[in-house]
Fold these 2 entries.
Entry 1:
Amino acid sequence: MRTVDAVVIGAGHNGLVTALYLARAGWDVLVLEGNHDVGGATRSGEVTEPGLVHDLYATNLNLFLASPVYAELREDLARTGFRPVVSDRPYASVFPGGSLRVYQDAERTERELGEHSAADLAGWRRLREMQHEFMATLMPLYGTRLPSAAALRHLARAVRRAGVGKLLTFAQLLARSTRELGETWFETPETRALIAAWGMHLDYGPDVSFGAMFPFVETFGDMEAGIAIARGGVSSLPEALAALVREAGGEVRTGARVERVTVDGGRATGVVANGEPIAARRAVVAGTSPRRLFGELLDGAPGVRAEEREHARRFRYGPGTMMVHLALDAPVPWSAHPDLASFAYVHVGPYVDDLARTYTQSLAGLIPDSPLLVVGQTSQVDPTRSPDGRQVVWVQVRSLPSTILGDAAGEITARHWDEAKEAVADRVLAKLEEYAPGVGALVRARTVLSPLDLERSNPNLVGGDSVAGSHHVAQNFLFRPWLGASGYATAVPGLYQIGAATWPGAGTNALSGYLCAELLLGPAPGLGTRARSGVRAGAAALARGADAVAGRFTGR
Ligand SMILES: Cc1cc2nc3c(=O)[nH]c(=O)nc-3n(C[C@H](O)[C@H](O)[C@H](O)COP(=O)(O)OP(=O)(O)OC[C@H]3O[C@@H](n4cnc5c(N)ncnc54)[C@H](O)[C@@H]3O)c2cc1C
């Protein structure tokens, strides 16, 4: 039987990061990926027309660029093929008769916002100042294991630096919903909607408490950093990571779906993949969704506590996402402003009430009558994606029911995603047409990925939930994936859980993969000097990463 030190289930970017650090510390590592290519939700391909490269799922790599992994491996990744391209026109929102545009040039953004509303500009400036303080004091917690001594140290430092009163002010601000955040700081419905749209990227409809967290960080973070995507397609990131794993002596095997985690004497001892048993001496690291891990891969395994299975069964998923990939003859002809065609993201909501209606409809099982569109103008940011002037456009549709019970507009009769998806895509294009007249005539080809297609392509995206499990506060921080499991070690010795369903959650942040490697490489008898130096390098990179996160977003 093949025996290795660690088996990593899934070649998402997190799994590859864990594998890489373990392999560099001298572990014999095998990554098993069920798909025929690596990357999970970070994959690209020519899905509309030959020569046009689309990011199939994730595209915005800001979180990765702010991660300790990038701080540590930047040159290695460049050598193996990953290079970011940054747009200095990160995001905008369109409204009937106008738009709000956020440029990396903060002065320009503020000047234009001031022309829209002096009161909103004042709120923007004050909120931005607070965001800078927040990033410098509390953001390092995002790159820290929870719970851990390091997290406590960060908190103590934050108390010393900002004082308890300021931290409580932050807590109150973050506890707000996105609607409350907007109404507290801005007067116009446009600016309120500009920030509320960010909440919908996770599963925060405008009226969910703590929805303010992500928009508070993203609104100013993306302005200052710009939005980064991968030159030539996002697959270059996992492919570069996989190349580094192999270079360090690890193996990355694709087309290898893990069917079972084996447990012997109460300890995880290996896996069965495509019928082949593989033993793991030190660890099985599962980058899989908790429900599948405990409900399928550990089904019938002895010694798995009933309460762990219960936690996994109760793990909640958010609403679904659909992707509409477009090949266009020319850039999107937005009517509100000529610059809009070159922005990385344009949100088409338009208003907070529209987002609230969409969110509620999707939770009720209804296809929303007017879903939120996140229009990613990929080839405008990275022209290498379409060398001959055709345009690559990525439209993320938020949010949709995982299972269709009806249509809020009463028009679509299909109740299975395979039959409904093209009609929903027609609705998406009709909505786009309202803000970009003539766009429909520019469409050369389109490929639609329904929530069901997302799950088929990656079993972690249960019900097409792009964030692999609700991020509401009851399932976040110490509660992700559930209380007692936030630190990656599961209740089964030798079995670890990483990925978007674990702290700190979804996004291309690489952090659960990184922090799990840190946990595994912690000083332990018999690991030897190489591993110990791996730990030291990891700790140093983490510290640098935390600084990079703070620095990147505060402009230091
Ligand atoms: C449509 C969409 C758009 C997104 N947009 C963005 C964005 O712009 N920016 C951003 O930061 N984030 C975005 N995200 C979120 C982000 O892509 C994910 O949170 C992140 O990629 C998760 O990475 P991961 O390493 O945890 O796992 P995943 O990328 O989910 O990979 C998990 C891998 O494990 C494999 N696997 C699972 N079970 C098994 C098994 N039993 N055996 C073998 N292999 C298995 C899967 O096939 C998959 O390849 C988006 C997600 C989606 C779906």
Entry 2:
Amino acid sequence: MRISYAPMEGITIYCYRNAHSRLFPEGIDRYYTPFLSVYKQHAIKKRDMREIAPENNALVEGRLIPQIMTNKADEIIWALSEMHERGFEEVNLNMGCPVGTVVSKHKGSGMLEEPAALDELFAQVFESEEIKHTALSVKTRIGLKDPKEYLEIFSVLNKYPFCNVIVHPRVRTQMYQGEPDMEIFKWAYENSKNPISYNGNIFTKDDYDRIVSEFPDLKEVMIGRGLVANPGLAREIVTGQAMGQDELRSFIETMEKEYKVEIPAEESIMHKMKEIWFYVGGNFKTTDGSEIEPYIHKIRVSKNPSEYRNAVRNLYRSCGV
Ligand SMILES: Cc1cc2nc3c(=O)[nH]c(=O)nc-3n(C[C@H](O)[C@H](O)[C@H](O)COP(=O)(O)O)c2cc1C
């Protein structure tokens, strides 16, 4: 079963992917870029261009899928053509982002509000010449407010030949809270006319094994926060070799160096690393069996890079790594 690294805006940018694929080369079949916004004038930001530039993605060549955010057929068609020229065979459309500023523009999960408009949009896309050379996949939630919305959404998706329908079985209002709705996912799995993939709350090898045994014909299992917390999770799934704390430390140090390529200001790196510590911190264990939380707290409240570095050093020392 294919394992993919979910798009995580602000985290899994190319610097992160390079560190990850270098230190944990086994297990990830594909990495999705965080969403690239497509603009009216058929363009994406310079920063987003760097996300997909071949020189920044040599280590993940052939495994990178650009994800786009737009709700306009002509912009999707433009992206299919643009990504094709850049050597990509697939483009993924974000229909899941729950953030208010995105939803209010009817993008991300905001696209799920009007299935009839979605139908019109995909009718145009699938009539285009561009869809003949570049496949389109979607990453979707099951609705905005009510899980029952999935029925209409899926009847639209089933009308068109997507190469992959990745389902995060939560509604928008849940954000990333609460349990994924496995009953609805089961319905989607059994009724999808397209290849279907699962995403949501896979934090351990057991979580992965459970999903795969229940849904053996999935195209792909996509993992986000579970991989940020435990970057060795995919390797553990495929080889059985769990990540050690020393490996996690090396990864954090490599990641920090890689981020510097894109983000020169030390202060900004510190903020990014604090966000990452929120996820990875719990994978460290102190040698004396005391709580790790106070050490993580010190990292998260550090006010400048020097305080940050001290707090990180203290955590490593307490864990004997
Ligand atoms: C910080 C953060 C950034 C995210 N950025 C994106 C994104 O750019 N595109 C996207 O489709 N989903 C994004 N997501 C959603 C994840 O890809 C994934 O669907 C979600 O975290 C649920 O999967 P998980 O339980 O394995 O983490 C983001 C989630 C988080 C927490």
